[in-house]
Write a structure and sequence with these properties.
The structure is a homodimer. Chain A is of the alpha/beta class. Chain A folds into two domains: 165 residues, Medium-chain alcohol dehydrogenases, catalytic domain (Quinone Oxidoreductase, Chain A, domain 1, Alpha-Beta Complex), CATH 3.90.180.10; 147 residues, 3-Layer(aba) Sandwich (Rossmann fold). In chain A, the strands form four sheets. In chain A, strands 3, 5, 6, 10, 11, 19 and 20 form a seven-stranded mixed β-sheet that branches. Chain A has a six-stranded parallel β-sheet with strand order 14-13-12-15-16-18. Chain A has a three-stranded antiparallel β-sheet with strand order 2-1-4, with no helix packed on it. In chain A, strand 1 and strand 2 form a beta hairpin. Strand 17 of chain A pairs antiparallel with strand 17 of chain B. Chains A, B: It comes from Halalkalicoccus tibetensis.
Chain lengths: 358, 358
C-alpha cells in the first residue's frame, strides 16, 4: 500500500510502498480517510522533534487521522464505523499511565507517539490500532474528523487549566489565544462557541488583508498584532486576561503570559520551543504570580476522554468557520500542496480514501 | 492601652499608647494573647511592603494573632472563647471577594491587611473584629495559636496546588520546601505529618551545626544546602519533586523550580520579591513545563476555611517540633528580642497577656 513517510537523512516526505498491516489480537484494521498536517509534522521533517521506530529506515508521517473500520477483527467496532485514533502507545508493554487511561501524562521514555516518536503514523492507506485507542465519532464528522486530534489537545489543556482554578470561585470573562495558526484558530473558535468568555482576543503578527485575521474577526474576537502590542502589554492596552492559551511555541510568550493575565488568571502553555536564553524581570514576574494568585499550566497530548470531548466540540463549531479554516484537502498525488507553509494555507489534510456513506 | 507600632518615617517598632477599641455592631472585642513575628513584619518596618492606614501617623504591627473574646457584643462568640483573626478586611464596604468568603482572592486595592496594608494590626492589648473574620480554636491551642495564620498560608497554597493536579490521577511521593525559615519549617512538618509524601527535602543555606538543620533532620527530611546543590540540580542530585513549595522569596527559585519538578509536578510559589532582572533558559523551561505537564501556582493570603484547616494541622504537629520551632515568646517590655533576626531565632511572638484557662 502507499504511505507518506520521511526517510532517515531526508527532510522531505516520500511516497513509499509498504505492506498492508495485519491486525493483531484486540486490534482493528482501519481504512484511512484523511490525515491532517500540522507544525509537529514539519518539526519531525526538519529532524528537531521525534524519533524513528527502532530498526526502521523511515517513519510513516501523520498523527491527526480519521478513518473507517475495515475489519473489526473481533473488537467492539463494526465495519464502517468512523473512528479517530489517539496518538500515544505504550513502548514496551503497558505502564501505569496507559493502564489508567492517561497516556498523555506519561513522561518521556514511557510512550511512543504514532507519526512522531518511535512509531509509524497514519499517513498510509490502512492502519491498525488496539480498539482501546480508537474513538468512534458520528458518521457526519468523517470529512473533518482529522480536526479532532488537534481539538483534543485544547480540551486537555483547558481541562488542566480550569482544574487549577477549581479551588475558588472563578468566573472568567476574557481569554486570549497567542498564535493564529490552525491550533490557535480552532481554540479561539472553541472559546467563542463552547466557553463562557464574553471577550476573546487572538494575537498574531500578520498584515492585513490576511485570511486568519478575517477568521478571527468573523468569530467576533479582537485581533492583536504583537508587533504593535507585545503580549506583556495586553493587560495595559486591552485588559488582563482570565485565560491565556499559548500556541506559538515562542518561549518569551510563556513568561510574558504572567503579565498578560488578570488577577487569579491562568496561562495554558502548549508550545515546545528549544533552548533559548534571554533576560526576564524574574522578580516582578514571581511577585505577580504570588500576589495575584496566578498559575501557569503546561500541557501535552490528550487521552480518549479528550478526544470524545473534541468530537462534541467539533459538532458545535459553525460550518462557515470550518470551511474557512480548512484551506485544502489533497490526494496523495498532490501531497506537496498539503505540506505548503504560506500565508494562504491554514489547515490542510492528505486524503487517502473518499468517505462513502453507509 | 499599649500597642507596638511603626511610626511614619521610622524603621523600628515603638511602644505607643492608643485608646482601647470599642466594638461596633457585629464586632467582638478580643483581648490579645500573643502575636507572631515574621518576615512580612520586617518588610513592613523596612518600608518595602505595606501601607499606613489613611490619615494615620503610625501602623500597629502584627497579623499572626491569637486572643480571647473579652466582649462578644452580641455576636456568636462567648466571653473566654479562644480565637484567631483573619488578616484581610474590605477597604470600602464589601466587594464580591469578601461577600463570597474569598478575601484571599481579592486583587490589590480590594483589600486592607491588618498590620500590613492600610489597617492596624493586632499587636495591642485589645483588638476588635467583625465576628465573621474570627475563627474559634480549641482552648488548648491558645499558647501556639499565633502559628495558625502562617499555617493557613500553607493550607491555601497546597489547596490550590493540589487543585491544579486534580484533572488526572496524581500520586505524589516526593516534596521539597525551599527555605528553612519558620514558614518553611512549618510547611515541612505539615508535609511529614499530614501529607502522603514518602520523601521530603528542605533547601537552605546554613552551615552545621544549625538548629533549623536539626529540626529538618528531626522530622526525617533531607537537608539540601543550596550552595552545594542549586535548586535546578535537585532532580539530578536527589530526585524530581512531585511538589515544590517555595518559601524563600528568591526570584530565581521560582524558575529553577520548573527543573526541580518531576513530570506532572507542581510548584507552589509563596515569595514576594521585588524587581530583579536575570537570564534564564526560557526555551528549555517552557518546553519542560509543556512536555512534562508541569504547573506553577502562585498563592497569597488565606480565608476562614484555611484557618480552620490550619487549626486541625496545628493539632497534629508533634510537641517536640513545636517546642524547637518557637524559640522565644517575649513580653512587651522585651519586644526587641521578638524582632531579633539571627541564626538562633526561628519563630518568636510578643505576648500581650497570659492565657488563663477557663
Amino acid at each position: 500500500m502507499d504511505a507518506l513517510a520521511v526517510r532517515k537523512g531526508e527532510h522531505e516526505p516520500s511516497v513509499i510502498d509498504i505492506p498492508e498491516p495485519v491486525p493483531g489480537e484486540g486490534e482493528a484494521l482501519v481504512r484511512t480517510l484523511r490525515v491532517g498536517v500540522d507544525g509537529t509534522d514539519r518539526e519531525v521533517l526538519e529532524g528537531g522533534h521525534g524519533e524513528f521506530p527502532a530498526d526502521e529506515e523511515y517513519l510513516v508521517l501523520g498523527h491527526e487521522a480519521v478513518g473507517v473500520v475495515e475489519d473489526p477483527n473481533g473488537t467492539e467496532y463494526e465495519a464502517g464505523d468512523v473512528v479517530v485514533p489517539t496518538v500515544r502507545r505504550p513502548p514496551n508493554g503497558e505502564n501505569e499511565y496507559f493502564e489508567r487511561g492517561e497516556p498523555d501524562m506519561a513522561p518521556e521514555g514511557e510512550y511512543h507517539e504514532r507519526g512522531i516518536v518511535g512509531a509509524h503514523g497514519f499517513m498510509a492507506e490502512y492502519f491498525t490500532s488496539p480498539a482501546e485507542y480508537l474513538v468512534r465519532i458520528p458518521d457526519e464528522q468523517a470529512p473533518l474528523g482529522f480536526l479532532i486530534e488537534p481539538i483534543s489537545i485544547t480540551e486537555k489543556a483547558l481541562d488542566h487549566a480550569y482544574a487549577s482554578r477549581s479551588a475558588f470561585e472563578w468566573n472568567p470573562e476574557s481569554a486570549a489565544v497567542l498564535g493564529n495558526g490552525s491550533l490557535g484558530l480552532l481554540t479561539l473558535a472553541t472559546f467563542v462557541h463552547t466557553h463562557p468568555f464574553e471577550r476573546t482576543y487572538c494575537v498574531g503578527r500578520r498584515d492585513r488583508p490576511d485570511p486568519t485575521i478575517e477568521i478571527i474577526e468573523g468569530l467576533g474576537a479582537t485581533y492583536v498584532d504583537s508587533r504593535e502590542t507585545p503580549v506583556d502589554e495586553l493587560s495595559r492596552e486591552h485588559e488582563g486576561m482570565d485565560l491565556v492559551y499559548e500556541a506559538t511555541g515562542y518561549a518569551k510568550h510563556a513568561f510574558q503570559t504572567i503579565d498578560a493575565l488578570a488577577p487569579n488568571g491562568v496561562g495554558a502553555l502548549l508550545g515546545v520551543p528549544g533552548p533559548w536564553e534571554f533576560e526576564i524581570d524574574g522578580g516582578t514576574l514571581h511577585e505577580e504570580l504570588v500576589l495575584h494568585n496566578k498559575a501557569l499550566v503546561g500541557s501535552v497530548n490528550s487521552h480518549v476522554g479528550h478526544f470524545e470531548g473534541a468530537s462534541d466540540t467539533l459538532g458545535s463549531l459553525p460550518e462557515e468557520f470550518l470551511d474557512s479554516l480548512v484551506t485544502g484537502v489533497h490526494g496523495l498525488d498532490d501531497w506537496e500542496a498539503a505540506f505548503a507553509d504560506d500565508d494562504t494555507t491554514i489547515k490542510t489534510a492528505v486524503e487517502f480514501a473518499a468517505y462513502e456513506e453507509r
